[in-house]
Amino acid sequence: MPPTYADIDSLRGIRVLSRGQQIHSGFRSVALDPDSNYTLALFGPEGSLNSIIYDLARHEWKGQLSDDQGDIRDVEWYNRGPVTAGSNGSISVWSPQGRISFKFQAHGAPIVAVQLHPAGDLLMSAAVDGEWAIHDLSAGKTVAKYPGAEGVGMGHSSSMKGNGVVFRCSDIHPDGHVYVVGCEDGTIHVYDVLTGNLKGTLGPLSGAVRSIHCSQNGYWVAETRTEDSKIRVWDLRKSTVAFELEGSSVGGKVRWDHRGQYLALGGDKGVDVFAYQKKEKTFVKVTEEPLEKTGVHCFDWGKDGKVIACGGLANGDICVLGIKA
């Protein structure tokens, strides 16, 4: 790892570094802008509140985004401008000045997640009705759209479409060729981005898949479920669960850091942090107790694995967890 990156021993000292003004407890999605050195946060709310851009270093509002999209289900950054995805199936792409550059009706059902493709100008989106799509943000149009496919075991392909698949969450693999989607029936669908074909499924296991995130190492996919507080780390090479980590929050959200060594679980009991020990080939929990025990419903890792920005706290705070310099 780079010498500036957090090591496991220092991560054991993670704590609340700063806390901003009380804004709203309804934030459910957040993304940090890499072009701002991960200091600008975009928070997406449920309910009537606007999305906000927030300066984590100064704990100041930088702007709010008003648009008719219903609940904001997920957020991203593109060319220093926000991207917001709504429960009405629309996606709005904003300029850095806070104006809508273009807006399109991506889906006919609520969007569950969006991710910027590693190629840079492509955006992935998935909707609750089992449809997923690829959008060219440089051209402002949808370039591919695929209905959901029934699950089959990994190693088998399928061209069957539809049949009541319900998507809950999604993520794009770091190589850009694989799209993973967590489903209501407890399966994880693995799609080929180039062809749109279902390459196979992981599971099913008990409970709907609540959250999913691909590690930058390219091998592991972490997920959580609605029925327990575990993080399950799947090994895509073997199509098996390689690790089960016991967290504090049932049905929480899981996020890898930017190098794929650390995992955080956030939910109604707070934030747990885990680290992978390469020598022992196992994970260890570095937080003795969850941080922000009243609940954290959206969060994202900052630069060098040293910071976690948190929203959706019960008291409406924006909170920064991290390692004291």
Distance between the amino and carboxyl termini: 18 Å
- Tell me the number of structural domains: 1
State the order of secondary-structure elements, H for helix, E for strand: HEEEEEEEEEEEEEEEEEEEEEEEEEEEE
Q: Helix tally?
A: 1
* Second-tier CATH architecture: 7 Propeller
Structural class: mainly beta
Poorly predicted regions are 150-162
What is the 3D shape? Answer: globular
- CATH homologous superfamily caption: YVTN repeat-like/Quinoprotein amine dehydrogenase
CATH class: Mainly Beta
Which fold name corresponds to the CATH topology?
Answer: Methylamine Dehydrogenase, Chain H
| Main beta sheet strand tally, sense and closure | 4 strands, antiparallel
Into which percent range does the helicity of residues fall?
A: under 10%
Total beta strand runs: 28
